[in-house]
Amino acid sequence: MSTLRMIAVGSLLHAKHLSRSSLEITIAMLVPLVQATLAVYLFRAGGEPHRLLEAAVGAGLMGVWSSVLFGSGGAIQNQRWQGTLEMIMLAPRPPALVILPITLATALTGTYAMVATLLWGRLLYGIPLDFAHPLAFAVAVPGCILSLGMFGLLLAATFVLMRNANALANTLEYPIWLLSGMLVPITVLPGWTTPLAAVLPTTWGARAVREAATGSGPVWPALAICLAISTVCLLLGAVAMTHVERRARTAATLALA
């Protein structure tokens, strides 16, 4: 219970910290609206107005993914710039448990992206919010966000070895949401991308949310696979974080990595 309380309090603290950044707020507010607008016009131009709800949901997922990716990529870097990274690593807890609340906080702030794109589509373009399975949708969205937060820990552990994590984050944003089928169906992509998409938790999370919204398939199996893959990512991230921390301590390069 103490561990769960630490994660909950830490996530709330870092979410409040993110809310104090004018840059973070501006990007979080504007980018999802731009993505939602582009998605709506893309589907209209393609002669598929019946899929506008799917476009709004996909744009929301893109916003959540962007928030997690850049938040996780900058988690370690921001702590390093603020001079608090050493204190985090000296905490009497495994480093993964200290970093996990940061990645969960970025996922929580990404919740706005989903809400904003749906309201934007409804108010500006008149998209009816007729979810095929409203209850399943209400469960699938938080489940997807939680899984992306756990996936973010693995990203944070990977990015800790880089001086500029955002350089890698910039290259991962669009390929991942494309491979995950957040906006474009995976079936239209080349066949060699299918195995890559199958191992990404974002693929199954996006499928669960989309199926809950449109009723195109069973929601719970996709959500279960999403959470299972994210749990594996969480464990791998914990192992990687511990290895990186020990390596940095041995070389005395924690603040310089």
Furnish the topology, listing elements before pairings:
Layout (H helix, E strand, L loop, with lengths): L1 H17 L3 H24 L6 H31 L2 H6 L4 H15 L1 H15 L8 H26 L5 H15 L14 H5 L2 H14 L5 H32 L6
Helix pairs in contact: 1-5, 2-3, 2-6, 3-5, 3-6, 3-7, 3-8, 3-10, 5-7, 7-10, 7-11, 10-11
Count of DSSP-assigned helices: 11
Beta fraction of the residues? under 5%
Low-confidence runs (pLDDT<50, min 5 residues)?
none
- Structure classification: mainly alpha
Mean pLDDT: 81
Outline the structure in words.
There is one protein chain. The protein is mostly helical. 78% of the residues lie in helices and 0% in strands. It has 11 helices and no strands. The radius of gyration is 18 Å and the shape is globular.
Features:
11 helices; single chain; globular; 257 residues; mainly alpha
Brief overview:
The protein is an all-alpha fold and 257 residues long. 78% of the residues lie in helices and 0% in strands.
